[in-house]
Amino acid sequence: MVTAKTAYKTGRATATVLPKLIGFGIAGTGLAHLVLPQAFESITKLAFPENTREWIYANGASETMIGLAISNSPTRVCGLVGLAAYVGFLGSRIVRA
Questions:
Q1: Into how many domains does the chain fold?
Q2: Which terminus of the chain is less hemmed in, N or C, by CB atoms within 10 Å?
């Protein structure tokens, strides 16, 4: 049985808490896209000059789902693959802009 004390000593606390924090941080950023889209307008306009507001919502939904997948242990690998694909997609859009 893993208790808080043994988890800290073995490093298991970091192995379980850190991915959750990162995942929830990404998901929180995604939710911020949906709640305050105007805050992301200038950044998003660089990669998506047309239909910017629609892309803000799409990016927010993507980031929310990816973040939640990373924060959940059974879906973490899938979330990391999704994150890599998402970053690649955004990078390609910025390079082409």
A1: 1
A2: N
